[in-house]
Design a protein that fits this description.
By secondary structure, this protein is of the alpha+beta class. The strands form two sheets. The protein has a five-stranded antiparallel beta sheet, with no helix packed on it. A two-stranded antiparallel ribbon has the order 3-4. Helix 1 packs antiparallel against helix 4. The chain is globular, with a radius of gyration of 20 Å. The chain starts with 8 loop residues before the first strand and ends with a helix.
Length: 287
């Protein structure tokens, strides 16, 4: 059977078949705009819309968040790239300038979180704004953007987990996947002459977990005891999510000369710091 007549992707145990899963959204003057970029842009737009309405609800100047968006978005992208390059320097050591080519792939969400947070800290200091109030408004916006952006991994056929035959098992045509880890390749499945990999859809797991956390933050924001509590619960919650999901990914970024996932190590540190700060501030409120 011709490859073109077979699904490019499908959730085999749910019976959902996808025959057209393009990486490219549109080409303009020979330059391709990828679905990954579209998903990131939609996530960012959703985040700024949330921040706009949340700032109005809480009596803040919504223009402050619109002005903050552009520098924070740029530093987030740079941070995401820098994080990836630092922990994968062996890929660029022979040609350091290739690290500037972001179209070749290589962004790490935790680097983006760090970059965006640093921009917010600097911006709040320059504008003499309450950073923790800013953080409570921006954290759910960031989480919403992360959740939507994860669908970019689906279109790119990346950031997936190991082989599984669970309810949400996802198959990709092997010919459409750039990098197939050996452990996944060993479990390759052939259907009507077409090779497929069958994996855990980590993008779907993290999207779902992020949306659950987003809903919890929507509830908690009306009960917070101090400025910064919503943001700290975001860091704590996402740290827990990332600590769990990192165990299943097949494209982990490792700490140098170890088998320790860098994002998992950072997540654990953030969980501890956030948890301690929440407990400390909550105890102070009771005095």
């Amino acid at each position: 059977m011709p490859m073109e007549s077979m699904p490019q992707a499908y959730f085999v145990n749910l019976g959902i078949e996808i025959y057209n899963l393009p990486r490219t959204f549109i080409s303009v003057f020979g330059i391709s705009i990828y679905w990954y970029a579209v998903c990131v842009a939609l996530g960012a737009l959703s985040g700024i819309v949330y921040a706009y309405f949340e700032s109005k609800r809480t009596g803040q100047d919504h223009n402050f968040y619109i002005d903050l968006f552009f520098p924070a978005f740029i530093t987030a992208i740079l941070g995401a790239r820098l994080y990836f390059v630092i922990f994968n320097w062996h890929l660029y050591a022979h040609n350091p300038l290739s690290a500037l080519n972001m179209r070749s792939g290589g962004l790490a969400i935790y680097g983006g979180i760090v970059g965006g947070t640093l921009a917010a800290i600097v911006y709040a200091k320059v504008k003499k704004y309450n950073f923790w109030l800013l953080a409570d408004t921006a954290a759910p916006a960031l989480l919403l953007g992360q959740a939507i952006g994860r669908w970019g991994n689906f279109f790119n056929r990346e950031a997936f987990g190991s082989y599984t035959d669970s309810l949400f098992a996802l198959r990709y045509r092997a010919a459409d996947v750039f990098f197939i880890p050996q452990s996944v390749y060993e479990q390759i499945i052939t259907v009507n002459g077409v090779d497929y990999i069958q994996i855990q859809p980590m993008f779907l797991y993290e999207f779902s977990a992020n949306m659950v956390l987003f809903a919890l933050l929507m509830i908690w924001k009306r009960r917070k005891g101090f400025d910064g509590e919503v943001a700290l619960f975001y860091f704590l919650g996402y740290g827990i999510i990332r600590t769990f999901t990192e165990n299943f990914r097949t494209d982990q970024i490792l700490l140098w000369n170890t088998n320790i996932p860098a994002s998992q190590a950072l997540a654990i540190v953030i969980i501890l710091i956030s948890g301690i700060m929440i407990v400390h501030k909550r105890l102070k409120l009771k005095k």
